[in-house]
Amino acid sequence: MTSSLEHQLILRELKCPVCMGYMTPPITQCSTGHNVCSSCRPRLDHCPTCRNQLQWIRNLSLENLAAAINYPCVNKMVGCSESFTLHTIKDHEGQCPYRNHTCPYRKISKEDCFWAGPLPELKTHVQEMHNSPGDHVELDGPFKTVLRNISETSSFRQTIFTLNEIFYIIWEVRDDIFYCVSFHIGPKKNSSKFKYRFRVSKRRGGESISYSLKTSSFMDDVEEIIKGGDCVAIHYRSVEKFIKNGVLPFEIYIFPNDVTNSVEKRREM
Ligand SMILES: [Zn+2]
Ligand SMILES: [Zn+2]
Ligand SMILES: [Zn+2]
Ligand SMILES: [Zn+2]
User: Fold this and answer.
1) In the structure, what pLDDT confidence band is assigned to residue 269 with cuts at 50, 70 and 90?
2) Taking ligand 1, which is a single-atom ion, which protein residues have CB atoms under 5 Å away?
3) Does 61 lie in the same domain as 171?
4) Before 26, cis peptide (omega within 30)?
5) Which of 10, 8, 15, 22 lies closest to 93, judged by CA?
6) 138 and 203: one domain?
7) 267 lies in a domain?
8) Where is the SIAH-type domain positioned along the sequence (predicted)?
């Protein structure tokens, strides 16, 4: 372990003098001992520090240091305060909330929105640009709603602001199956911290179908989620029993998953 000051000093040594990015193995040095990163090295015919044209050699001790310390996320300047080892930083940077993410209306629902930005700015974007009736809703507790004009080819989507988080829910009927997926929009590791309960029921204690599932991450591919069965999937004939005059009433409840992490599916008829 290193102190914060030592850590800063090591990071300073790991900055490439050409591109100013952090060097990662293989790190090469000139015969005098000046380092350059492996991306810049092939474009150089002399050392950028001392102009020496002699042989480049590996700097193994600096490579060992590089493998042992945490690097700050590439999005540090725009707000990410996390740091990671060389082995884990690429995974994080691919999902970092502060990198530019595609709008979920485009990523998941293939709509014509070309916004891309950091997740902390997504709420404002949705409020300003996706504000037709049914586009988004702000909630506290269970959410009772209806799907209108439901048919064997319908699809619907909605952003839900609740629990100080953003969720994006899709419903669709495809190949005779009614699907519902609730996506958590945020760091991937946080999606399992929430669950959603989906419930359709007939009035006055009649039949009901209910599911309770972990929310999916919006970083994941919707087709993989559906293929993997990690969502509500009910035969359309079963859902049809609950449709009255083209309207399907149902309830969605998103809540923190404090109790258990296991996926729990329940079907009551
Ligand atoms: Zn470089
Ligand atoms: Zn040199
Ligand atoms: Zn980050
Ligand atoms: Zn958008």
Assistant:
1) very low
2) 16, 18-19, 37, 40
3) no
4) yes
5) 22
6) yes
7) no
8) 68-131
Q: How far is the CA of 166 from the centre of ligand 4 (A)?
A: 13
Ligand 2: centre distance to CA 20 (Å):
16
Distance CA 87, CA 61 (A): 18
Q: What confidence tens digit (pLDDT) does each residue in 19-67 have?
A: 998 999 999 999 899 999 999 999 998 899 998 876 889 999 999 999 9
Cα 120 to averaged position of ligand 3 atoms, centre (Å)? 12
> Are 151 and 230 contained in the same domain?
yes
Closest C-alpha among 60, 37, 59 to residue 48: 37
Nearest in space to 180 (alpha carbons), one of 201, 199, 202, 152: 199
Residue 168 Cα to ligand 3 middle (Å): 22
Q: Does 58 share its domain with 151?
A: no
Q: How far is the CA of 3 from the centre of ligand 2 (A)?
A: 29
- The first and second tokens of residue 221, run together, are 């591919």
Two structure tokens written together for 31: 């015969």
> pLDDT per residue over 74-85, tens digit each?
899 889 999 999
Q: Would 85 be classed as within a structural domain?
A: no
